[in-house]
Structures are given as structure tokens and as C-alpha cells.
From TrEMBL:
Lineage, opening ranks: Bacteria, Pseudomonadati, Bacteroidota, Cytophagia, Cytophagales
Cellular component GO terms held in the UniProt record: cytoplasm; extracellular exosome; microvesicle
Name the UniProt record assigns to this protein: Glycine--tRNA ligase
BP term (GO), one: diadenosine tetraphosphate biosynthetic process
Protein family membership: Belongs to the class-II aminoacyl-tRNA synthetase family.
């Protein structure tokens, strides 16, 4: 996949709408910016991603349990967490285009272009030297590549210094020194950088005069932290243990863009793992590897993932990295792994006046646990699956097809049951099979159009298997089982069908590989 493949991105967005995965929200009223509705196929894919995450995180770990906390929380929660005072993005406006951007993102996108230059040099050298090519040696000795690397390091250091010191003017200076232009107009006429708080606020109460200002949660993690003691006591949990949650979060993103990659209303899958102080970095490394394995087990291409360590650590972290995925717009954050220290529990203990410590009988002492967090955006994961799955193919007969090669365990529909023709008792036999399979998995029944066109429809929504009922079926109770990716077909007995297909599409196949 080429980085910044805008054409591919447009095709994915179009395909997602045409086949019932994602619709623009409130479309009959001309839509609402950066909000989307998941259609009939999309909601199934989304639920299957959630199931894979939940089962792997909670069901497979006896030391991790799940909760579902409320979206509304006491406003002091967000004071304690630092969101009221520090949940800001550095924004910069272009005076000519009137467009607004995140200053740090503009700089990161400039860095990505320099990184692309390095990869271009590496690719050229790889073709030139073939099997004898030593990437590490080339990157460390090639004068042009070394220059690019030093430029990236210098930019990163200047940005880190400006962010750490809260010097917004330093970010503007860096943008101007790098000659960064507005992506829309090409103008370099920038305003000063300003901070913009991302939380949505509303009022709680029946009368506006007596209402209290509260917030839509900007992350799901705080619902876990404020329930830490409830879960620990009622579950008799011992350190180390984790609490997982899937839920909606809301951020007033000024630059909500790139389809479902960055939205104002989104869904997170988060797990907070509570550990003994001093052991957090060891657990941080463990969770990095576990989470990367979870992603790669899907078989969407190991080369599409990479770790990116944070240079600018959040105020609560002593280590942090992202798992980045190769989206059509390049490598971008898919999941974050953070060592949050004891910042959150200590802050909530201070602001609530409640003791949030764990008594360790082995050490005969109490302490506030440290936390290692894994946080993945469900919508971004959805987009990653679509990106990896979308395939255009030219077949042997010269015809073309678009196929979504979604991992079978995540596919919205597991099988389609198709009578070859709409007569001779074939539809009735096909419905018998459908009625039997529907208790175990999502199925579709389709009898309209020629069988080839029906195969194409199922390919386009990512259905991994099609079951074709023909005249031979009435004679010997066998059907044709067609596999989506290879289009290979085999004859199989109806009596073996349910167990065979279940084995092929079950999420347990993925879970056992973890």
C-alpha cells in the first residue's frame, strides 16, 4: 500500500457507503460534519471487532474484568484528571484560507514527508544492491539519509522543548522556519498558536439557573479509575489486575477529518492494568508485545504495523508508545500503550478525600498502584480492517471484482446461502439450510440475479463463504462451498456444513493463536 494514497481512501469511503458499512450522519439534512452512522454491515463488523477484543482481554485473562461506566461523571473527576486545565490542543489558523490546524500535527506531517524521502532513498538502494543490501548500514552511512535523520531529530527536539515549556510561540517559529504552508491554499500567512480545550460541556439539572456544568467524557479511562476500589473489593482482586471497558467518548476536535479516523464522537476499547510500583515498566513492555500480537494475529500484514515511541510524554506518563497502522494516509496511531504511573489514582484520592490504596498482605503495606494502559480506537480499528481488506482483482476471464478480504472471524456475514436458480425446489432447500445455520452465525439468503453476480455482491461485503444449492443437492444432500479470497469450491455434505463453517469463521481460531 502506498503512503498517502488518496485515491484508495476515496474508494474505501465510497465502498463503505455503497455496501451498507458507514453512512454520513443525518444525510437527508445534508449531514453533520465528522459524524457517521454505522450501517447494517458496519454494525456487525464493529460488534465482531469488539467481541475479539473483549474475549481476548477479559475472557482469556483471569486477572482482568470488565465494567461499563456512565458517560456523565461528577465534574470534579475532570479537574482531578487534569482535563479541565490541560486537555488542550495547540491550534493555528491560516489568515488567507481561514482554515484551522493543530500546530503539532502540521509539524508531524512535515516530518512524515522527510521520512518518506528516507524510504525513497532506501528503496532505490535496495533495488540497486539486491540481496547484498544492508539497510542498517546504509541508513547510518549514506550522507543524504543521515542528513534527513538529523533534520528529523532537530525538529522533534525543538517541538518537544516548546511543548514541554508551554511556549506556543516556539511552535509558530518552527512552522515558519520549516516553511510549512497551508495544505489547502499554499499560504504561509499564519496566526499565533493558541490553546483550545477539547471537552464538550453541558448542564445537569431541570432548570438552567440551578444547573451544574458537567462534561461529556473525553476518554473512558476515568470511569475505570473512579471504580478501581469498587472492583478491587467486590472482585477480591489482587495486584496485578486489570479493568477493561468499551464505550463512547467525545472530543470537540477542531480538525475532525479523514473519515472515521478522527471524529468528535468515537468509541474506545481500553484496559487499565494495576501493578506494584517499580514493576510498571516491565508490564509496559509485556503489554506492548501482547497488543502487537493481537493485531498481527488478524493476518492483515505484519509490515502494516510499527511501534512509535512518544518523544513528548503526557503529564501522567513515564513511558508511552503507539502502535501505528499503515492507513491510506500513511502510518498513523491505531492504539496507545502508556505507563501512567500513579497519577490518576493519586489525583482522585486527593480530590475525593477517599483512600484509594491497595493493602499488600505479602509486604504488609499499603500503596497506590501504578497503571499500564492499553487504549485502542474502535473506529480506527474498523478503518484499519477496511483498509487492509479492500482489494481490486482482475480474474482469469478478464472480469474484475472488488473483494473485502476481511478476516473471517470479523466478517459481518459469515456465509451466504444461494439457490442456483429460483425453481425446482432449490429455494426451499436453501432456506432449510439457512434456517439451520442462522442459530450459529450471521447468514444471508440471496436468490436474485445470476449466481456470478451474487458471488460478487458477497465478495464486496466480505462474506468469507458462499453455499450454493443446486440440483445435485436434491439428489445427494451435498452443496458447493465457495471460499471468498481464492474463489475455490468444494463439495461438502449438508450434515457436515455447520461444524465445518463454524470452525472456519469462529473467533476462537484467532483467540487460540494469541
Amino acid at each position: 500500500m502506498a503512503a498517502n494514497d488518496e485515491n484508495l481512501f476515496k474508494k474505501i469511503v465510497s465502498h463503505a457507503k455503497e455496501y451498507g458499512f458507514i453512512f454520513p450522519s443525518s444525510e437527508i439534512y445534508d449531514g453533520l460534519g465528522a459524524t457517521y452512522d454505522y450501517g447494517q454491515q458496519g454494525v456487525e463488523l464493529k460488534n465482531n471487532i469488539k467481541a475479539y477484543w473483549w474475549k481476548s482481554m477479559v475472557q482469556l485473562h483471569e486477572d482482568i474484568v470488565g465494567i461499563d461506566a456512565a458517560i456523565f461523571m461528577h465534574p470534579t473527576t475532570w479537574k482531578a484528571s487534569g482535563h479541565v486545565d490541560a486537555f488542550n490542543d495547540p491550534m493555528i489558523d491560516n489568515k488567507d484560507s481561514k482554515k484551522r490546524y493543530r500546530a503539532d500535527v502540521l509539524i508531524e506531517e512535515y516530518i512524515a514527508k522527510v521520512e518518506a524521502k528516507i524510504e525513497k532513498e532506501v528503496s532505490k538502494a535496495e533495488k540497486r544492491f539486491g540481496d547484498a543490501f544492508d539497510r542498517e548500514q546504509f541508513v547510518s552511512t549514506n550522507q543524504r539519509v543521515v542528513g534527513y535523520s538529523e533534520e528529523i531529530s532537530s525538529i522533534n527536539q525543538r517541538m518537544k522543548n516548546a511543548m514541554d515549556e508551554g511556549r506556543l510561540e516556539g511552535l509558530k517559529e518552527l512552522i515558519e522556519d520549516l516553511g510549512i504552508a497551508d495544505p489547502v491554499s499554499g499560504s504561509k500567512n499564519w496566526t499565533d498558536v493558541r490553546q483550545f480545550n477539547l471537552m464538550f460541556s453541558t448542564e445537569l439539572g431541570s432548570l438552567a439557573e440551578g444547573a451544574s456544568k458537567i462534561y461529556l467524557r473525553p476518554e473512558t479511562a476515568q470511569g475505570i479509575f473512579v471504580n478501581y476500589l469498587n472492583v478491587q473489593k467486590t472482585g477480591r482482586m489482587k495486584i496485578p489486575f486489570g479493568i477493561a471497558q468499551i464505550g463512547k467518548a467525545f472530543r470537540n476536535e477542531i480538525i475532525a477529518r479523514q473519515f472515521i479516523f478522527r471524529m468528535r464522537e468515537f468509541e474506545q476499547m481500553e484496559m487499565q492494568f494495576f501493578v506494584k510500583p517499580g514493576e510498571e515498566l516491565e508490564w509496559y513492555e509485556q503489554w506492548k508485545e501482547r497488543r502487537m500480537k493481537w493485531h498481527k494475529t488478524l493476518g492483515m500484514g505484519d509490515e502494516n504495523y510499527r511501534f512509535h515511541d512518544h518523544l513528548n510524554l503526557a503529564h501522567y506518563a513515564n513511558a508511552a508508545c503507539d502502535i501505528e497502522f499503515n492507513f491510506p494516509m500513511g502510518f498513523k496511531e491505531l492504539e496507545g500503550i502508556h505507563s501512567r504511573t500513579d497519577f490518576d489514582l493519586s489525583a482522585h484520592e486527593k480530590h475525593s478525600g477517599k483512600k484509594l490504596q491497595f493493602f499488600d498482605p505479602a509486604e504488609n503495606r499499603s500503596y497506590i498502584p501504578y497503571v499500564v494502559e492499553t487504549s485502542i480506537g474502535l473506529d480506527r480499528m474498523f478503518l484499519a480492517v477496511l483498509t487492509a481488506a479492500y482489494t481490486e482483482e482482475t480474474l482469469e476471464d478478464g472480469s474484475e471484482r472488488v473483494v473485502l478480504k476481511i478476516p473471517a472471524a470479523l466478517a459481518p456475514q459469515k456465509v451466504a446461502v444461494l439457490p442456483l436458480i429460483k425453481k425446482d425446489g432449490l429455494p426451499e432447500k436453501a432456506m432449510e439450510i439457512f434456517d439451520e445455520l442462522k442459530f450459529d452465525m450471521n447468514c444471508q439468503y440471496d436468490e436474485k440475479d445470476a449466481i456470478g453476480r451474487r458471488y460478487r455482491r458477497q465478495d464486496a461485503i466480505g462474506t468469507p463463504y458462499c453455499i450454493t444449492v443446486d440440483h445435485q443437492t436434491l439428489e445427494d444432500n451435498t452443496v458447493t462451498l465457495r471460499e471468498r479470497d481464492s474463489a475455490a469450491q468444494e463439495r461438502i455434505s449438508i450434515s457436515d456444513l455447520a461444524s465445518r463453517v463454524n470452525e472456519l469463521v469462529s473467533v476462537n481460531t484467532l483467540l487460540r493463536a494469541l
